[in-house]
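Build the 3D complex.
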Amino acid sequence: MQGRGRDPGRVGDLRIAPSLLSADFGMLAEQVGEVAPSADWLHVDVMDGHFVPNVTIGPPVVASLRRHTPLFFDCHLMMTDPGRYLEDFAEAGADGCTVHIEIGGTDELIARMRGLGLRAGLALNPDTPFDAVRPYLHDVDLLLCMTVFPGFGGQSFIADVMPKVAQARAVVGADALALDIEVDGGIDTTTAPLAATAGANVFVAGSAIFGHERPWEAADAIRESVRATTAR
Ligand code: DX5
Ligand code: ZN
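Done.
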């Protein structure tokens, strides 16, 4: 089964990716509709109750949402065994899937994502060193630097991750890699500029957007905060 491959936009461009984790799960389609005009991607947090303690969204929800929006679905698989579900996500209409380096089997997972027509992403936790992902960067489309420990929305941004983001941006520049650098966790109008300065270009935000009375305004504000800091 092939992913549909909706346009992710140009690599390295500023992207705002609202995270559904903080949306009202009883009215997901409405929440997505509210934020869509101000969003580039939709970040879908998949938690398996094993890699992280929480359980959230799976392929059936992705398939349902697919009928309501043409947005690029950026699926963050916080799972011990994502390989078992990649085909289901592709079939459900995921555009990109991101797996964690900490679970191992990375070469095979990247090959499986490619084979399914998915954009391939690799995530690393705040305490995982950059060297762990370095060998795979020429093989993936996106590096997700977690700026909180995965599992819950609404946590505080870990600024100590910024040198790692800068390290990744330096390698992208030196090796001319076609790689997006995404940050996820505690992103708002104060922290997004810090991450942008370090070199991130994709900004995931859950509570800062869906915790706001007018989510689209919050997404626009994060975009503006980054634009004011960088030329992106
Ligand atoms: C955390 C998730 C994040 C989360 C971000 O495990 O991967 O995507 O939704 O939420 P905020 O923006 O509230 O930190
Ligand atoms: Zn996420």
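The mean pLDDT is 96.
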